[in-house]
Each structure stands twice: as structure tokens, then as C-alpha cells.
Amino acid sequence: MCGIVGYVGSRDCSEVLVSALTKLEYRGYDSAGIAVFENNEIITVKTKGKLKDLEDKLGAVGKPQGHIGIGHTRWATHGEPSDVNSHPHSGARVTIVHNGIIENYLDLKEFLISKGREFLSDTDTEVVAQLLDYMYNGNPVETIDSVMAELKGSFALGIMFKDYPDRVFAVRRESPLIVGVNEGECFIASDVPAILQYTRDYYLLEHDEIATLTREGVTFVDEHLEPIEKELKTADWDMEAAEKGGYPHFMIKEINEQPSAIQMTITPRIKNGLPCLEECGITLDKIKDFKSITIVACGTAMHAGMVGKYVIEDLARVPVTVDIASEFRYRNPIVGKGDLVIIVSQSGETADSLAALRLAKQKGATTLAIVNAKGSSIAREADMLIYTLAGPEIAVASTKAYITQLSVIYLFAFELALAKETISPAECKRLVSALRKMPEAVQYVIDSCEEKCKFIATKLINAESLLYIGRGLDYALSMEGSLKLKEVSYIHSESYAAGELKHGTISLIDEEMPVISVATQTDVIPKTISNIVEVKSRGATIILVCTDACARKLKEGVADYVIEIPHSDELLMPITAVVPLQLLAYYTSINRGNDPDKPRNLAKSVTVE
Ligand code: AGP
């Protein structure tokens, strides 16, 4: 999604803006631009393409010389990626950058055209710039407030008024925006990494609050234009966490961070060998009466929910439905008082997941958020909250967030099973102890499988389509393996319940279709092996991810490539088995010459519908 930055201080503003934008590249973008006050004039430079293209253009036309400005990376929604559609956009006296969507922009555009305004771009953003200019009454904050009353949608804006060359204004509704502060300088940004090189102190802008940034500091007013005091926050991770640290890509760095991410996430939530989620607002008493659970999320987070379904149902015997947030929110779901709705999200800002959370609350359900980004909207609005302590996840393809989401879901499942008395404290302690071994187990899998995955990935370079199959938890995991591969390699892939193949999909199998099978669940391994034999006999190349125990029993020639992982508690196998799937995706992406950190068309944080 689009990234916004802004600066007021005494540094070289163009440099600050471009540098801050590089820290938001992970969000995904197709064009970039900056606007800077130079001798009281607003100078805008923008281009289609990457930040490198913007830097080249700044080199060619001369970078604006000044200390106050705004910058933007655009992920196209309205209008194709082009120079003219890139941000910043301007009216005669106003220049803005924007993240999000203005839902009523066509009505507003029509109105402004009827007033004689002309538009250069196809964007909804230019409509806001023109509207600000049209409604400008000489007082920027009042004008922004009046314009906010006219806008529908979710958005964050960085704004400069030509008449006020010493300040930048910021406002948001739904879309995230923070205001960083330091001695003699202030920043705005869509996310904390953008400002970490300058300061760790920041404010979270709330809905419809307006911030005014000057060298003297920042002031805030609410939607009634009443001045407000806000709590200053401090980022608890530093630049290093948001840098590649010697790895060629964030994705492989984050895969390698998984052992410590799991450790960080589970350790504070275990006491005396049992789960302890009291600090997250969860006690045995509070959860023992839930009759049903719905897990709602998008993409990888939803796949973590799929694993959760198998684990919670198995241990706590509570029915679990997993729903895609964009479906849940529009289908009048059956949830209400006495039901628990769990929202899983790395960013905590995914528009559909946030809307699903609000709908669940409106219907009377109790909500639990499992979120990585501190202070995000989902984290703040849920009734109960468990943070995954994965640290910043920069690569678009989620890896360490997924594995920590699983870790939290396991802890919650253990706690719920205790509350429901479907497992004994002794059994719970055994499971917790097995979970505690996961950081070491994941490290072992990374160390022992990476070279093999790298090699097998060379065999996938020319594949046009792949199938991932598994049963039970292995099927839930296959979904994540398939998504990981397709998002970074651009090879089509599907995940399928292995037993369902015969009902149609097996007709796709031929020599050109590699099949990746996951087999870690002892009860169903013989069944999965039968399915593997069926697809193998139709010409498919088989890549099998299985436990060492399974590999020992495997007949010669059943699979073309076998990736063995150590056997642990069966329920916990997705934690280790996902690692080779992540590595296969990463190396296939590299082999095909892609940038796995910034897959085409994708954004890290999907803050629009
Ligand atoms: C997966 O690699 C993607 N990053 C994507 O599917 C992601 O999990 C999804 O967009 C949900 O994001 P969230 O966890 O921030 O809500």
C-alpha cells in the first residue's frame, strides 16, 4: 500500500524524505514523489517506477533545497501507475500525499468540475487536493476539518499549504499514520521503520485527529478542533531489526529469525510449565464458556487460523470456523453473545480484518486479536489481545509472523483445553514443554534443509503450475506453502486436500505438474502416500516434506525428492514443516530472478478493500 512520509526540521528535506521512503518500500509501490518548500514555493518531483527512478530524476532536475516537505510511494488504486498519477498532488495552494481510498471521489470530482476545476490525473487523491483548495478559508486546520466532513473512505493524508511554509499537516481516518518527534524536528510516516533512523519517539494519530508539525514540535486537535494531549510512545525495536543485517533479502533474514521470534513470543506467556495469558486479558474463567469460535483473517494469517481450527477442535473440542475477512464482513455471519471471534493479523491494519472485528463486536461476540504491530487499530479495538512478538516483518511474504501466530494459537488452544477440562494439567504441561522445544527444532530444520531446498528449487524454475497436497494439519499447512510459492515465484499453485484429488483435480496431473506433498501426521500418512503414488503414476514429480519416521518407511522411488524434518509432537508439526516450504518459495523466487521482498502487485499492509 502507499507509504507517506513528511518532515519539518533543519536537515536536507529531500534526502530525509527519500531515505524515509526506502524504509517503506516493503509496503509495495509503483511510483514515488516528494514535494519540498524551497524559498516559500512548493517544488514537486515525482515519477513512475522505483525510488531509484525518483533519485535519478532528482539528480537530473535538481533536488529541491529546503527543510520542510512530504513524500510518497504509490501503490496504484485509481489510475494506472504513471508520472501524472504519482503523488504528491496539488491544488493551487495545497499539495498532498495520500494513502487509502476516497470512496466518494467521483461525486466530489463532479462537483468540483461544475465549479470550473480541472483535473490532471485519474486519482482520487487529486480530488482531495482540489477540494482542500476550494474550501480553503485561510486557516489550514479548519479547512482540513471541513474537508474531512465531506470525505468517505479510509485514508491518511500529509498536507502542505503554500501560505504556511513552516509546517506540515497530517490527518487520518482508518489508514495508519504516526508522528515522530525529535529535538527541533518532526516527522510523519505510515509506519515506524521510516523514522527509526532519526527518532524512536512517536505519537499514534487517531481517527480524524489533525496534527500540525513545526520545528517547535507537534500539536493535535480532535474532530471538534479541541486541542488534545497525546501519549508519546517509544519504538521498542531499533534500526537493526528493520535492516537486512547481512542477508541478501528480508525474506531469508526473517526465515532465519523464526527460532528467536517463537522464543520471544512464547516465553513470557508460560509460567510453571503452563500457559499464562493473564497479561493479555485471558483467564480460564473468562474463556471456559465459549461455545463456538470463528477465526477471521486474510492470506497467511487466515492460514494460521486453519491450523488453529484443527488444533483447537482436537484439544478443546470447541467447533471452530475459519473465515476469510472479506467474506465474513459481507455475509451476515452467525456470531453473537457467547461466541469468540479471533482476528489474526500481522499488521493489525488490514482493512477487511478490521471491519470483521468491528462487525463481530457489533453482533455481541467477544473478540480476541492476535496481532504483531503494536498499537495498531485491530490491537486497540479488540476485547482481548495477544501480541505476537516477531519484531518488524518487512518482507511482503509473511514468514516469522506466521510462525509466531501459530505459536500463540497453540498457547491459546492449550489454555482453552485446560479451561474446558478436555486435557489435564499434566497433558497441558507436556504440550507446553513440546512447544518450548520449537525454537531449537526450527533452527535444526533451517540448518539441515536449506541446501536441499535450494537444490530442489532449481527443479521448479520452469514449472507453470504446482499442486500442494496434504491431509488434516498437513492440508492446512499446504495452503500456506502454496501461497508462499505463488506470491514470490509467480508460479501458479493450488493446495488440495489429498483425499479430494480423485474428485476432479487429478485430471490436471501430468509430467509438467510437480506435486509438493506434506506428510507429518502419522494417522493419515499411509493415506497420503497412496495419493502420492497415484499422482506419481500419472507422471508428476514428487517433492515430499515428511518426518524422519515417515521417510524411513517410504518405499524406494515413491518420491523424487524427500525433505526430512524431525518428528515432534504431531499437533506442533506445522511449526517445523512450514520452514522447507518457505525456503522452497524463497529459492524458487531467486532462481526466477524475482525480488522476493517486493513481489509484483502486492503490498505488505492491505489497508484498502
Ligand atoms: C502473505 O505472505 C501476505 N503477506 C498476506 O497474505 C498477509 O498475510 C495478509 O495480507 C494479511 O495481512 P495481515 O496479517 O497484516 O492482516
Outline of the structure:
The protein is an alpha/beta fold. The chain folds into 3 domains: 3-242, Aminohydrolase, N-terminal nucleophile (Ntn) domain (Glutamine Phosphoribosylpyrophosphate, subunit 1, domain 1), CATH 3.60.20.10; 245-436, Glucose-6-phosphate isomerase like protein, domain 1 (Rossmann fold, 3-Layer(aba) Sandwich), CATH 3.40.50.10490; 440-595, Glucose-6-phosphate isomerase like protein, domain 1 (Rossmann fold, 3-Layer(aba) Sandwich), CATH 3.40.50.10490.
Polypeptide structure, described:
The chain has 609 residues and is an alpha/beta fold. The model has no long low-confidence stretch (mean pLDDT 94). β20, α11 and β21 form a beta-alpha-beta unit. The protein has 19 helices and 27 strands.
Number of helices: 19
Looking at the structure, the CATH topology of the largest domain is Glutamine Phosphoribosylpyrophosphate, subunit 1, domain 1
According to CATH, the homologous superfamily of the largest domain is: Aminohydrolase, N-terminal nucleophile (Ntn) domain
Poorly predicted regions are none
- The CATH architecture of the largest domain would be 4-Layer Sandwich
Our count of domains comes out at 3
Radius of gyration: 25 Å
Distance between the termini: 11 Å
* Topology, number of strands: 27
Looking at the structure, what is the overall shape? globular
Strand order of the largest sheet: 3-2-4-1-10-9-11-15
Structural class: alpha/beta
Fraction in helix: 25-40%
| Ligand species | 2-deoxy-2-amino glucitol-6-phosphate
